[in-house]
Amino acid sequence: MQPALTLYASSLFYKSGFNDGDFPDELMDWLPDHAGWSEPETYYAADRDIWDRALERLVREHLLPVLAPAEVEIEVVDSCHNPVRARTYGGRDVTLCWSGALPPPQVDISVGVPFARVAEVLREVMDEGGAVRSPAP
User: Fold this and answer.
1) Of 8, 63, 69, 136, which cross-links 79 as Cys (Cβ 3.0–4.6 Å)?
2) What does the DSSP 8-state code read for residue 96?
3) Mean pLDDT across the stretch 41-64?
4) What is the pLDDT of residue 33?
5) C-alpha distances in angstroms, 82 versus 20, 85, 105, 122?
6) Residues linked to residue 135 through DSSP beta bridges, in sequence order
7) DSSP code for 5
8) 0.85 cut: is pTM over it?
9) What is the pLDDT of residues 70-86, one digit of tens each?
10) Three-class SS string for 40-80?
11) Nearest to 84 by CA among 16, 4, 6
């Protein structure tokens, strides 16, 4: 079975979600041997936005579709923490959940994205360059 990155819906509601926005160690270890990347940490260290943009794309492509029919609006925030957060869930503003001021919705849904697909998205993001950010509250 191929290793996969697990995206938890609950991460959308926390500042510390999605591994606090950090590049997953398991993926970092997997890339050199399976995707032909030597020293992937140098890519991440040079431009943290690479992971932020890849994570946003993975959430949009893989996690949001399984949350349907719940209406979820995400926002990408400029933060040293989780960059991909829910702005609304089911029509309700959930931004106060980010700081813990309100309890988050109970959403027990996750999706696994094969590391090979994650590597493809990382490559696409690096090829595209550029990033657009919203300020973090």
Assistant:
1) 136
2) G
3) 84
4) 85
5) 5, 7, 17, 17
6) 78
7) E
8) yes
9) 889 999 999 889 999 99
10) HHHHHHHCCHHHHHHHHHHHHHHHHHHHCCCCEEEEEEECC
11) 16
